[in-house]
Amino acid sequence: xxxxxxxxxxxxxxxxxxxxxxxxxxxxxxxxxxxxxxxxxxxxxxxxxxxxxxxxxxxxxxxxxxxxxxxxxxxxxxxxxxxxxxxxxxxxxxxxxxxxxxxxxxxxxxxxxxxxxxxxxxxxxxxxxxxxxxxxxxxxxxxxxxxxxxxxxxxxxxxxxxxxxxxxxxxxxxxxxxxxxxxxxxxxxxxxxxxxxxxxxxxxxxxxxxxxxxxxxxxxxxxxxxxxxxxxxxxxxxxxxxxxxxxxxxxxxxxxxxxxxxxxxxxxxxxxxxx
Length: 275
Description:
The protein is of the alpha+beta class and 275 residues long. 19% of the residues lie in helices and 30% in strands. The relative contact order is 0.13. Mean pLDDT is 74; it is low at 1-17, 35-41, 43-50 and 120-138.
């Protein structure tokens, strides 16, 4: 530029520069823009100015929550217009309502199980149902019966004294091999089931069994056995609940007890049918 050349011509011999006279500078810059911007190289900036360049912010640790917690604003938090998440499927039921539904479901399940069990019992019982008979006990109610001696081949119990039936004496416990046994026959007058027949063996241990029939027979084979044999000594109960309903019940003695005189006999007292 022209003014730069003029400045260079005014350089002093010592290597410095001299400012131009005001009138000479004004004449030479007439008609030119009056604002001139000069640029200083970065290397000429002082060190302090270079240190003032903007730096990235340092990391600050999160601040702990205040002791009293965060307080909601006075107006509360407003949900967005669309709500949070998908819309609810339906109105929520209260805990009491849910509990009622659970109890009702359990009740219905119990009813269904009970009905099913009843049907299974009914189906399983067809053709194979077994009636439950009362357990034979000595406390069952006595039944009126006519008691008589039974002996197909002899006198059996020839005498009764004070309600005690006594047999003759034999040479062995098996009636001296003269007969299979003797008995007492109970006639109920009509067929009916019994729970038991009770008796009292007064002369030691004897072997007895209970038999029954619908008609009176002269042979022991005409009476069917009810239960097994029993070793009777003192008060004894013969179970009869498995025998069904019959008019005649026979207390059949097949083994005798020894007596003091060396003979064998049987004494039965308080023979009673019970239902």
